[in-house]
């Protein structure tokens, strides 16, 4: 595996302590960029889907689409490595567009109560033509934009806030939900959050790990959930791996759960079995009423 061989899987932005590691990372990213430039991304990119479960009724409410790249040259390269490279090199749209098409085509076959979440980069939103292209992909699909949630991270606001704001407003007007991803680790001010038409926040997984025995994490999750409630937003909690974490989150009123506890990201073909196990009960009931 290229990623394992060529060094550590650092989280984006994490400080690199040793210059030799740093050099290795720079060389690795240069190689990734070079291979990405030449890649047939339509062919080499695929999408996996991780379920989001409402624990109150034990029902699936949606899936998040996550990018996978299998390069004939490098093997499997994780998104935490190739997405930032493509962003820096200025061609993230070559990744976003085919992935969005693939994800929408899969999601179009799901029961109507199931939503699709899709990650966007700041750069997907900062050019008017780029935004129009995304909107045309959404319209060309057989998927109702009201069932689509677009995820952005706070780091997107470092770009051009006004431009991001108007792009998000346009997507919201199509009926899409707007989720703030990795909530809690960013640097944006709360007043900026209020200036965006958000519908959901996703609490970052770094606060969830062992929160039942980490008072600091516990307090942070508690206040982020309270903040979300005050803002009238749904909160998804990411990275839930254990029964213990889940129990504490339920107690705190965190009900929308995404994490290995329920499932790792899965291929399209595994989705029907998961939905059989945890169908969307309330929406199905709803459909019978109307
Ligand atoms: P994200 O959007 O915050 O996605 C959640 C990440 O957490 C995924 O990693 C998922 O596999 C992982 N995860 C979920 N539950 C657990 C858990 O219980 N334990 C652990 N250890 N990990 C868990 P993944 O698929 O490697 O993606 C990493 C990041 O790459 C994503 O973070 C997102 O920022 C970015 N990304 C992935 N696909 C796309 C894409 O299509 N477009 C863009 N712009 N970014 C993407
Ligand atoms: Mg996400
Ligand atoms: Mg996240
Ligand atoms: Mg992320």
UniProtKB/TrEMBL annotation:
This protein's superkingdom?
Bacteria
The EAL domain is annotated at 29-279
- The name on file for this protein is GGDEF-domain containing protein
Q: Which organism is it from?
A: Rhizobium chutanense
Q: Entire protein: which part is shown?
A: 370 to 659 of 659
């Amino acid at each position: 595996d290229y990623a394992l061989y060529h060094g550590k899987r650092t989280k984006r932005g994490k400080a690199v302590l040793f210059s030799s590691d740093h050099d290795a990372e720079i060389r690795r990213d240069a190689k990734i960029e070079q291979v990405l430039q030449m890649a047939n991304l339509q062919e080499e990119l695929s999408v996996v889907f991780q379920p989001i479960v409402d624990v109150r009724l034990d029902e699936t409410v949606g899936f998040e689409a996550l990018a996978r790249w299998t390069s004939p040259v490098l093997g499997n390269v994780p998104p935490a490595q190739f997405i930032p490279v493509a962003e820096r090199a200025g061609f993230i749209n070559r990744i976003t567009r085919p992935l969005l098409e693939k994800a929408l085509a899969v999601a179009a076959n799901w029961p109507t109560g199931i939503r699709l979440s899709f990650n966007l980069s700041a750069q997907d939103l900062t050019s008017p033509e780029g935004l129009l292209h995304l909107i045309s992909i959404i319209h060309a699909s057989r998927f109702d934009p009201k069932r689509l949630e677009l995820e952005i991270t706070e780091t997107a606001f470092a770009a051009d806030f006004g431009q991001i704001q108007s792009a998000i407003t346009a997507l919201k007007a199509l009926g899409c939900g707007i989720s703030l991803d990795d909530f809690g680790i960013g640097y944006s001010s709360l007043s900026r959050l209020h200036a965006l038409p958000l519908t959901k926040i996703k609490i970052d997984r770094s606060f969830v790990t062992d929160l039942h025995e980490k008072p600091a994490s516990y307090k942070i999750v508690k206040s982020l959930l309270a903040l979300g409630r005050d803002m009238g937003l749904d909160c998804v909690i990411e990275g839930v791996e254990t029964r213990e974490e889940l129990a504490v989150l339920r107690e705190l009123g965190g009900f929308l759960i995404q994490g290995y506890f329920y499932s790792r990201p899965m291929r399209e073909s595994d989705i029907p079995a998961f939905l059989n196990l945890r169908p969307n009960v309330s929406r199905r009931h709803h459909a019978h009423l109307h």
